[in-house]
Amino acid sequence: MECIVNWAGPQAVAGEGSAMSFVAQTGSGHTLVMDGAPDAVKPENGGANLAPRPMETVLAGAGGCTAYDVVLILKRGRQDVRGCSVKLTADRADVDPKVFTQIHMHFVVTGKGLAASAVERAIAMSHDKYCSATIMLGKTAEISTSFELVEV
Fold first, then answer.
1. I need a surface site. Which of 32, 58, 63, 152 has the fewest CB within 10 A?
2. Model's pTM, two decimal places?
């Protein structure tokens, strides 16, 4: 896996963007823009809130990774899954490095006749075996999960 991240540079300041914007080119050929948080004390050191923060993209990636697993596991288990969303809420350390210390993932899984035990098992399998992102983040953060089923 490869990714190249380029700083948009100081030329982005004069109303054309953010002093702390970065553009990532992923190995799969996609572009991702990230920006820093605005800095009221030193605006030249902050972003302009034009794109997600880098740590937000880490959290979103973990959500995408685990949701992918859950859907795939349910489909392989012949569950009639029609939708899956996961809301992630996280706390970070107060001092640098500001790693995630707690992450809660609440899944809403939609389908027809879904077995709660199958959803619970799929979430556990993702977090214990398959989701590289949550397993990695679990080295610094306490990760908890919950879910609800929506019948269609």
1. 152
2. 0.90
